[in-house]
Design a protein that fits this description.
Organism: Dioscorea zingiberensis
GO molecular function: transcription coregulator activity
Radius of gyration: 25 Å
Protein name: Protein UXT
Distance between the termini: 26 Å
Shape: elongated
Structural class: alpha+beta
CATH topology: Helix Hairpins
Helix content: 55-70%
GO cellular component, one term: mediator complex
CATH class: Mainly Alpha
Pfam family, one: Prefoldin
Number of helices: 2
Amino acid sequence: MAESLDFRQQKVRKFEEFVDRRLKPDLVNAIAQRDKVFEQQKVFSDLKRNIEVLEKSGATSLRTRVNLGSEVYMQADVPDTRHIFVDVGLGFHVEFTWSEALDFISVREARLARQVEEYTHLIADIKAQIKLVYEGIRELLQLPAE
């Protein structure tokens, strides 16, 4: 009987180590990655709204503040707002007209929505795995289900 108890305790420790060393870090990482995608969605949503405001107002020039880094701002004059530079990734910026930028943003938003969905499914899968491990532990210890 004592041998069986030791075997169960070893199994429980292995299950707990698996959860702590593998599943929980994977879960934290997946949530962080999804949060980054949410931030990108917000950036593109804000850009889209700003372009639409510029289109409605018919503004051809603009005075704004630009963040130079470390929350240091400088006033900037934009003599021609009909073209904008958009960060397309990997450090590259592309000059777009407003309509081209809106088309690009629509494509990017669809891709980001798919990424959010993928990360959400991954998070749900990891949580399900964690739940299964804890159910296995409960069975090993022969505890009643909650």
